[in-house]
Write a structure and sequence with these properties.
Blueprint (H helix, E strand, L loop, with lengths): L5 H4 L4 H23 L4 H15 L31 H45 L1 H5 L3 E6 L2 E7 L16 H13 L3 E7 L13 H16 L10 E5 L12 H7 L1 E7 L18
Parallel strand pairs: 3-4
Antiparallel strand pairs: 1-2, 2-5, 3-5
């Protein structure tokens, strides 16, 4: 006896059994195709909303976020309640630590350079004080340091006559020693003239502005007699009575404010410099 088809034995026609098998195979085929397909997240969201409205499907938890993922068979659409730390965050944290270490190293290097510069500036200033110790003792010149500057203050006494921009002959030797210091010092040179607050109006100078500027120019001319000084390093300023050292309330203070300053400015790019060696001229 020939074997009968199980579905035919169940009372189903043979053509119906064949059609059901074909539909099952087609369904599996399309599911397989769908599993390999990528979908547009926005279109998928719109389609889901349309089906929900059409079939009356209600969701207990409202969600307005976009669908995450490109394949319908993946189950990672919903974000985790406690997401795992991303690799990107760990990399950023390491980068931040490295940058912090670099900043600490840069700060330490800059501090070391600044400390070295301060020591060099103090040595340069001490060499100037030794070269000009006689003029300093007489109150004609003073040497001070301020951050990255060496300030040589030339008082009016012994250098200029009252109301004049002509340098006294006895002060030429002092200017020669200052010129040697400027030639050996790195950085820029600012020559600034200052006066007291007594107004001046002569045939030569209309105001203290012109007098302070003219005195600064005179000092620069004496400095540039030294051929080792590059004129490109030199700058002239005239401040009149706008920057007094002490109040102009008596004759002694006004004498202090009448001055010309030779300022040696060391920049942060100057990481090294020679100590000033100045030979004092014999009288």
């Amino acid at each position: 006896m020939e074997d009968e088809c199980p579905k035919c034995a169940a009372g189903l026609p043979a053509w119906l059994a064949t059609f059901a098998d074909l539909m099952s195979l087609l369904m599996c085929f399309f599911v397989l195709l769908l599993s390999f397909a990528e979908i547009d997240a926005i279109r998928f969201k719109k389609m889901a909303d349309s089906m929900r409205d059409a079939f009356g499907v209600q969701r207990e938890i409202m969600a307005v976020e976009m669908v995450k993922g490109v394949s319908v068979i993946k189950q990672e659409f919903s974000p985790s309640v406690t997401p795992d730390p991303a690799v990107v965050n760990e990399i950023r944290q390491k980068t931040t630590e490295i940058e912090k270490q670099n900043l600490d190293i840069n700060d330490a290097v800059m501090e070391a350079v600044a400390e070295k510069m301060r020591k060099e500036i103090e040595l340069d200033a001490e060499a100037l004080r030794e070269a000009l110790k006689q003029e300093i003792a007489e109150g004609l010149v003073s040497v001070e340091t301020e951050e990255t500057k060496i300030i040589v203050r030339i008082q009016e006494k012994g250098s200029f006559s009252s109301g004049s921009a002509q340098l006294d002959k006895g002060f030429i030797e002092v200017m020669e020693r200052i010129g040697k210091a400027v030639a050996k010092s790195p950085g820029n040179v600012i020559v600034a003239g200052h006066t007291d607050n007594i107004p001046i109006s002569t045939a030569r100078f209309r105001s203290n502005w012109e007098l302070s500027s003219a005195r600064a120019v005179t000092v620069v001319h004496e400095l540039l007699r030294n051929r080792d000084i590059d004129p490109a390093r030199v700058m002239i300023e005239g401040h009149a009575d706008s920057r007094p050292l002490v109040p102009n309330d008596n004759s002694a203070n006004r004498a202090i404010n009448r001055r010309v300053e030779v300022i040696l400015v060391r920049g942060r790019d100057q990481e090294s410099g020679d100590v000033l060696i100045i030979e004092k001229s014999e009288s």
